[in-house]
Amino acid sequence: xxxxxxxxxxxxxxxxxxxxxxxxxxxxxxxxxxxxxxxxxxxxxxxxxxxxxxxxxxxxxxxxxxxxxxxxxxxxxxxxxxxxxxxxxxxxxxxxxxxxxxxx
Length: 104
Description:
- By secondary structure, this protein is mainly α.
- Helices cover 84% and strands 0% of the residues.
- The chain has two helices and no strands.
- Helix 1 (8-43) runs antiparallel to helix 2 (49-99).
């Protein structure tokens, strides 16, 4: 038998925390990418090493962006679980209020 306990305020808190984190990380990751591009174009120009470094960082950056998108996906999933739990709770209340309470 499944055991359920849903702390709706905690679900919302964690979901919002994750959303805010992804919103803050995404622009910072892009800023860092632009810094690497600028560095390899101007401050650290290496004929062979520069393109290799930029290519490796581009791959790394793509993985970081995917990770940030994953955080947002988890945030939405957690929020969806909380919403579904609230809807289920409200539905149960509504159904039992329609039927009425059993009398002793």
